[in-house]
Amino acid sequence: MVHLQIHQQYAYIGLNIKEPALRMHTVHPRVEIKTEPAQLAMESPGPDLHIDQSKCFADAGLRSPEVLKDYLISLALSAFSAGVDEIVYEGNALAQITGTSVADLAAACLDTDHVFDVKAIPQQRPDIRFDIHPVKIDYRPADVNASLRRGRVESHLERGRVEGYIRQKNYARIRYVGENYNTVA
């Protein structure tokens, strides 16, 4: 009987594994909004008030500047004429040898009668009117400007790898164990 001793070793495979890696960088989307608010400008001029009191002033004996000027001129002319007439009358009266004396002229100056007239003035109402102006409105609506910056995703993929190598070689060793007989028959 032949005795053989077989010793064997299996091969081992080693693996270098690099996991895949996915790196992502995200830039978020952004909305930029610029707004201008609405503007409202209103101008409301007040009413114009016109009051004509010329009739009231006339009732009180008051006049406008132009009418007063004409009135004073006519009054001055009539007072001048009356003064000249009175001086001429007094001169004529004194020129007469008989009749009027200086005492008589002085007494005539004292005989002036004063008349008082009482009444409520003004007797006429003033003329009042209004000029109303419309409200001026200037409106500018709001303005919204929006711009979008799109978001983006930047990705970088490092692929995974698997490298195989022989960690232990296989072999088989066969040995004869026993006695060697050499027999010839």
Task: Explain what this protein looks like in three dimensions.
The protein has 185 residues and is α+β, with helices and mostly antiparallel strands. The chain has a domain at 50-127. Helices cover 24% and strands 41% of the residues. It has 3 helices and 12 strands. It has helices at residues 54-59, 65-95, 102-109; strands spanning 4-9, 12-18, 21-27, 30-36, 39-43, 48-52, 127-131, 136-140, 143-149, 152-158, 161-168, 171-176. Strands 1-12 form a two-stranded antiparallel sheet. Strands 2-11 form a two-stranded antiparallel ribbon. The chain has a two-stranded antiparallel sheet with strand order 3-10. The longest helix has 31 residues, at 65-95. The mean pLDDT is 83.
Fold blueprint:
Layout: E1 4-9, E2 12-18, E3 21-27, E4 30-36, E5 39-43, E6 48-52, H1 54-59, H2 65-95, H3 102-109, E7 127-131, E8 136-140, E9 143-149, E10 152-158, E11 161-168, E12 171-176
Antiparallel strand pairs: 1-12, 2-11, 3-10, 4-9, 5-8, 6-7
Key words describing this protein structure:
two-stranded antiparallel sheet; alpha+beta; 24% helix; rod-shaped; 3 helices
Concise description?
The chain has a domain of 78 residues. The protein is 24% helix and 41% strand.
